[in-house]
Design goal:
By secondary structure, this protein is of the alpha+beta class. Helices cover about 25% and strands about 25% of the residues.
Length: about 325
């Protein structure tokens, strides 16, 4: 087998892509993707993969598929899948890449150096496979702590909002899009919400501009919360930058932003991958189920310096140990 690869979808590929995914909409989704690779053995299309991205921070690798998935051709399928991943990673230097897979992709992504994410959720729609998700409220072993909220709060919350009487609580409104807020306002919300860590205003503007969906929360004319989603217009969406400024955390602003996003996203599968501090928050949203098959890898740029994430405590909280299996996967 001698594979060749293409980063373009030719008109002649449409029928083959439709057959590969059993979906007539897939060729158009490939066309609109941030990046894609098609693999050929001779003139025969034998595999494909694509990436959804706003071109700034996130990349969601998905639709990894080959024509060889039966037991007797599994090795060909693995080799082709790994080659497709290596090819598309050439477009993703200096980027943290999420991969949305299936049970059958587990060994492939492990072989490609991806870690299994512990802090990933999927919006559970009717008809989705229960075997791909964990029970509602699932926690990993290291997440059982004496105070069930300890370590699961994300940005620190002040006590003031929760102490207010009903009459004192602000009247918060929610909007599709960012309303009248400037991107500088959005950047200030992100910086305040995420422990004061400075955000780059130009990157924030590009990220929100290139996202298909965004929502916002206001106290009067003051922007107090934002969230966005990158999507492909048909199959996948990923939620990002769910942020509420301190002083308004604990008032269900984050929950309401999420519900508003759920209401406007039309894609079939909505995924998110977050930090350990948000586990408690997302576990309390009944629309979400913790998923088994989101993977992550940082594609290093040799020319860029970057802090290592090999810290054992970081990896324990972010990723399952190498080779980790749930009982139904043995």
């Amino acid at each position: 087998m001698e594979l060749r690869f293409s980063a373009e979808v030719n008109p002649a590929d449409s029928e083959s892509l439709t057959a590969l995914y059993n979906d007539p909409a897939r060729p158009e989704l490939f066309e609109k993707s941030f990046s894609k690779r098609l693999a050929y053995d001779g003139d025969r299309l034998v595999g494909a993969v694509r990436v959804i991205s706003e071109g700034v921070e996130t990349a969601l690798l998905t639709d990894l598929r080959t024509v060889w998935e039966e037991d007797e051709t599994a090795q060909k399928g693995l080799e082709t899948a790994l080659a497709l991943i290596r090819e598309i990673e050439k477009d993703l230097n200096n980027r943290r890449v999420m991969a949305c897979g299936r049970r059958r992709d587990l060994e492939t992504f492990e072989a490609a150096g991806y870690a299994r994410c512990k802090n990933a959720w999927v919006f559970f729609r009717e008809g989705m496979d229960e075997s791909d998700v964990l029970p509602p409220g699932y926690r990993f072993e290291n997440e059982f702590v004496e105070d069930e909220d300890a370590g699961n709060r994300g940005p620190a919350r002040t006590a003031a909002p929760n102490a207010r009487s009903a009459a004192e609580r602000p009247e918060i409104s929610y909007r599709d899009g960012l309303g009248e807020a400037s991107f500088a306002d959005v950047n200030d919300v992100l910086t305040a919400a995420f422990w004061g860590r400075p955000h780059d205003a130009a990157r924030t503007e590009k990220a929100f501009t290139n996202s298909r969906y965004s929502v916002s929360a206001y106290d009067g004319e003051k922007l107090i919360g934002v969230a966005r989603a990158v999507a492909d217009g048909g199959r996948y969406a990923t939620i990002l930058n769910v942020a509420v400024v301190p002083g308004y955390q604990g008032l269900s602003v984050g929950k309401n932003l999420m519900k508003k996003l759920f209401g406007i996203i039309s894609e079939d599968v909505i995924v998110l991958n977050t930090h350990p501090g948000a586990v408690g928050f997302y576990n309390r949203l009944p629309e979400l189920r913790r998923t088994k098959y989101i993977f992550e890898k940082f594609i290093a740029d040799p020319a860029a310096e970057r802090k290592s994430d090999k810290n054992p405590a970081f990896r324990l909280n972010m990723y399952a140990p190498a080779g980790y299996r749930f009982p139904d996967e043995y």
